[in-house]
């Protein structure tokens, strides 16, 4: 029996989810997110369910891990991919099945949504531990690279603005 419970996040979880995002960005990419920006983003996601949702794992009254899900319509499949993002598990709870349980719960939720055709996520190229975890759950790398262009003037990192 797992030592934790799984549930959808609520507004009461906003601060811990923002802290998880700050820790994850620093641990995996050495980036320092702006607390006010990430806090507002987490609260927005929680307040606007059409954007997506968070799942959390809770143990001993404390949230110990979580992930965010957003959707992408695939016209090729006439279905939605659920994008798994903002994955974080507190260090003391790693290697204890937290992410595996969150992923399995997400799979159960997807069975109730007939147009969900699969899951996707992106991972840092150098994050071998995360990649091994995802592969162990049946996920595979794709032939696609991720590209982005941020709008000029956007500020999301400490000390850095996107230049136009």
TrEMBL record:
Residues 4-163 form the N-acetyltransferase domain. The keyword Acyltransferase applies. Pfam families: Acetyltransf_1. InterPro entries: Acyl_CoA_acyltransferase, Bact_Acetyltransf, GNAT_dom. SUPFAM superfamilies: Acyl-CoA N-acyltransferases (Nat). It comes from Ramlibacter agri. It comes from the Bacteria. One of its GO terms (molecular function) is acyltransferase activity, transferring groups other than amino-acyl groups. Keywords: Acyltransferase, Transferase. Transmembrane segments: none annotated. This is GNAT family N-acetyltransferase. PROSITE patterns: GNAT.
């Amino acid at each position: 029996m797992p030592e934790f419970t799984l549930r959808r996040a609520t507004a009461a979880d906003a601060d811990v989810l923002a802290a998880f995002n700050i820790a994850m960005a620093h641990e995996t990419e050495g980036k320092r997110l702006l607390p006010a920006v990430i806090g507002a983003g987490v609260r927005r996601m929680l307040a606007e369910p059409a954007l997506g949702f968070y799942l959390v794992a809770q143990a001993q009254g404390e949230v110990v891990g979580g992930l965010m899900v957003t959707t992408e319509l695939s016209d090729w499949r006439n279905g939605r991919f659920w994008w798994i993002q903002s994955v974080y598990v507190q260090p003391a709870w790693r290697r204890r099945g937290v992410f595996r349980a969150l992923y399995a719960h997400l799979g159960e939720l997807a069975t109730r949504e007939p147009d969900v055709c699969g899951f996707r996520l992106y991972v840092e190229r150098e994050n071998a531990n995360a990649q091994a975890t995802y592969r162990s759950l049946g996920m595979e790398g794709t032939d696609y690279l991720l590209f982005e262009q941020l709008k000029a003037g956007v500020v999301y990192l400490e000390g850095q603005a996107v230049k136009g």
